[in-house]
């Protein structure tokens, strides 16, 4: 009755349309501005029952970044609509889960709202990202294929994935 486990680390980044390199820079600044203490708070909220307080800081942007942020267009985001506790689209059409809290913090830091583009499946989200119907993918692992149409921030969420399985037992049939 041996257990076998496969351990893989999921490095989750924000995937950003290749034609929006300034957006990648802005989001990275927003991510970097989330303090270690606030990151711990988000992990506590989602991975343990205790709660902690929020922190807030403002960022300094250069002139190009300020111009980008002042433009009337919005940042649109596709997500995996059914991947809790990370994220999902709830019955009211709202982005909920761990990444929703991260994105609230990122949007607060960069001063620009991030609008959810609703999809029914992760595959549909990937298709919309490729078609440029959304500017970013909220929780994307960098792959060779995705690197063809997305740039990636540094990972903001690193999560070990463990799969454990029992070996089959040999039982005598009477």
- Give me the number of helical elements: 5
Structural class estimated from helices and strands: alpha+beta
Shape: globular
End-to-end Cα distance: 21 Å
Low-confidence residue ranges: 48-56
Sheet of most strands: 6 strands, mixed
What is Rg? 19 Å
| Residue fraction in strands | 25-35%
Question: What is the average per-residue confidence, as pLDDT, rounded to a whole number?
Answer: 82
Q: SSE order, as H and E?
A: EHHHEEEEHEHEEE
The tally of strands reads 9
The helix fraction, in percent, is 25-40%
Task: Offer a quick outline of the entry.
The chain has helices at residues 21-32, 36-47, 63-70, 98-110, 122-130; strands at residues 3-17, 75-78, 82-83, 87-89, 95-96, 114-116, 136-140, 150-152, 157-166.
Verbal overview:
The protein is α+β, with helices and mostly antiparallel strands and 174 residues long. The chain has helices at residues 21-32, 36-47, 63-70, 98-110, 122-130, and strands at residues 3-17, 75-78, 82-83, 87-89, 95-96, 114-116, 136-140, 150-152, 157-166. The strands form 2 sheets. Strands 1, 2, 6, 7, 8 and 9 form a 6-stranded mixed sheet that branches. Strands 3-4-5 form a 3-stranded antiparallel sheet, with helices on one face. Strand 3 (82-83) and strand 4 (87-89) form a beta hairpin. The longest helix is centred in the middle third of the chain and has 13 residues, at 98-110. The two termini are 21 Å apart.
Structural key phrases:
single chain, 174 residues, alpha+beta, 6-stranded mixed β-sheet, 3-stranded antiparallel β-sheet, 5 helices, 9 strands
């Amino acid at each position: 009755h041996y257990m076998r486990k496969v351990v893989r680390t999921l490095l989750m980044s924000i995937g950003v349309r290749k034609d929006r390199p300034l957006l990648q820079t802005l989001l990275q600044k927003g991510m970097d501005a989330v303090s270690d203490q606030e990151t711990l708070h988000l992990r506590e909220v989602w991975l343990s029952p205790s709660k902690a307080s929020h922190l807030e800081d403002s960022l300094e942007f250069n002139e190009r970044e300020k111009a980008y942020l002042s433009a009337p267009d919005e940042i649109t985001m596709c997500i995996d609509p059914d991947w809790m506790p990370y994220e999902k689209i709830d019955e009211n059409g709202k982005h909920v889960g761990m990444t929703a809290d991260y994105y609230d913090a990122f949007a607060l830091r960069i001063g620009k709202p991030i609008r959810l583009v609703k999809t029914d499946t992760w595959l549909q989200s990937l298709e919309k990202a490729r078609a440029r119907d959304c500017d970013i993918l909220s929780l994307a692992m960098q792959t060779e294929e995705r690197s063809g149409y997305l740039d990636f921030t540094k990972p903001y969420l690193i999560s070990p994935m463990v799969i454990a399985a029992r070996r089959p037992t040999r039982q005598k049939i009477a």
